[in-house]
Amino acid sequence: MSLARASSKYLFPAVGAVGAIGLGWHFYSSRIYNDTAKTFKDNGEWIDLKLKDSWNISANTKHYVFELNSPEDVSGLVTASCLLAKYVTPKGNNVIRPYTPVSDVNQKGTIEFIIKTYPEGKFSKYVYDLKPNDTVSFKGPIVKWKWEPNQFKHISLIGGGSGITPLYQLLHEITKNPEDNTKVDLFYGSLSTQDILMKKELDKIAAEHKDQVNIHYFVDKSSDDWTGHTGHITKDFLKENLPAPSADAKIFVCGPPPLYKAISGPKNSPTDQGEVTGALADLGYSKEHVFKF
Ligand SMILES: Cc1cc2nc3c(=O)[nH]c(=O)nc-3n(C[C@H](O)[C@H](O)[C@H](O)COP(=O)(O)OP(=O)(O)OC[C@H]3O[C@@H](n4cnc5c(N)ncnc54)[C@H](O)[C@@H]3O)c2cc1C
Ligand SMILES: *[C@@H]1O[C@H](CO)[C@@H](O)[C@H](O)[C@H]1NC(C)=O
Ligand SMILES: *[C@@H]1O[C@H](CO)[C@@H](O)[C@H](O)[C@H]1NC(C)=O
Q1: Beta strands in 89-182 (DSSP E)
Q2: Which ligand 3 atom minimizes the distance to the CA of 132?
Q3: Residue 34: is its pLDDT beyond 90?
Q4: Fewer CB in 10 Å around end: N or C, the chain?
Q5: How far is the CA of 229 from the centre of ligand 2 (A)?
Q6: Distance between alpha carbon 251 and the CA centroid of its chain, in Å?
Q7: What's the confidence (pLDDT) of residue 223?
Q8: Is the shortest distance between the CB of 89 and ligand 1 below 6 Å?
Q9: Is 164 annotated as a binding residue?
Q10: Hey, what CATH topology would domain 154-292 get?
Q11: Is the pLDDT of residue 212 over 70?
């Protein structure tokens, strides 16, 4: 299966008349026969999902498709949310990690993730080795930021590496809704051009929403044909390209610890955003302007 076909097959299933009729029918029948039709109900239950398919999208990152409880189910998530995934080691220890789906919240029957594999990573190594029909326990959802259409006039998404996942959720949710006019700037840093995750999906969104979406790619190591930026996302670049601090604009940040340190400062804990420090603080942004995933 080619990468392009695989990702379009699962991420954009509603393309074409047949898909539209199919979705219409599923919506209708699930309303009649099952009011909720959500696999995840935030009731504390661990639910085993079967791995349907997985494929490499970069040297260290894989795309995973899991089957929901029923082909009629939606996940039950809203944008932006994550799920907890659990792996019980042979010694009986629980390894629990949060992951952010990249599939549409209304997608029926499956849910998709993008997970970076760390050489010594307890959960990511485990999931990397799973075969189709193996299961993983998930629990949730955990809502990180409940997006409402036109919540802000302008949002800026600043991310690095696999931190793209919640930012992609927001970008996708906003641009699929013709009523949502929020302007979106994405500043996305990667190690090299080969490490830019979901570039095809991101470029498609940008091309289809030229007046609404701007994507600024940054890579540490560039190649000869690279037309994006080289180096880290800098304070000077943000100064030129972010809207001035205001209640109409919000900045969302997600990435590895060094990115938080440089751009926004770290979170104190999952429930405590901490003060804004780093480049954003220097540029006059404070707690009310910034959300750290
Ligand atoms: C809300 C949220 C959403 C997330 N969504 C995603 C997502 O969509 N996709 C994704 O890929 N990830 C996501 N993550 C990250 C994910 O939850 C895991 O942290 C990640 O997969 C690593 O888990 P692991 O068990 O594989 O690695 P771990 O065993 O936790 O180790 C991770 C790496 O850190 C190193 N390490 C471990 N302990 C230490 C230490 N004490 N000091 C220094 N280095 C150490 C390991 O060697 C390894 O390289 C998310 C995180 C959060 C908080
Ligand atoms: C996926 O990537 C890993 C690590 O780079 C590699 O060893 C493996 O052969 C790749 N698998 C496929 C199907 O390309
Ligand atoms: C997975 O399960 C399905 C249905 O039970 C079966 O048809 C399929 O062959 C299995 N796939 C693998 C790779 O075992």
Answers
A1: 94-99, 110-116, 135-143, 154-160
A2: 13
A3: no
A4: N
A5: 28
A6: 15
A7: 87
A8: no
A9: no
A10: Rossmann fold (3.40.50)
A11: yes
Domain map of the chain by residue range? 47-143, 154-292
The kind and range of the H/E element at 63 are strand 61-67
**CA 273 to ligand 1 center in whole angstroms:** 19
pLDDT digits (tens, 9 = 90+) for 92-110: 999 999 999 999 999 999 9
C-alpha distances in angstroms, 33 versus 22, 23, 109, 174, 211? 16, 15, 16, 30, 41
To the question of whether residue 165 is assigned a binding role by annotation, the answer is yes
Backbone torsions φ then ψ of 156, nearest 5 degrees: -120, 125
- pLDDT per residue as tens digits for the range 138-171: 999 999 999 999 999 999 999 999 999 999 999 9
| Residue ID of nearest Cα to ligand 3 atom 2 | 133
What would the mean pLDDT of 26-40 be, rounded to a whole number?
64
The superfamily in CATH containing domain 47-143 is: Translation factors (2.40.30.10)
36 appears as a binding residue in the annotation: no
124 annotated ligand binder: yes
At residue 175 the predicted structure's pLDDT band, cuts being 50, 70 and 90, is very high
- CB-ligand 2 contact for 56 (6 Å cutoff): yes
pLDDT digits (tens, 9 = 90+) for 79-93: 999 999 999 999 999
Give the rounded distance of the alpha carbon of 53 from its chain centre: 19
Residue 194 CB less than 6 A away from ligand 2? no
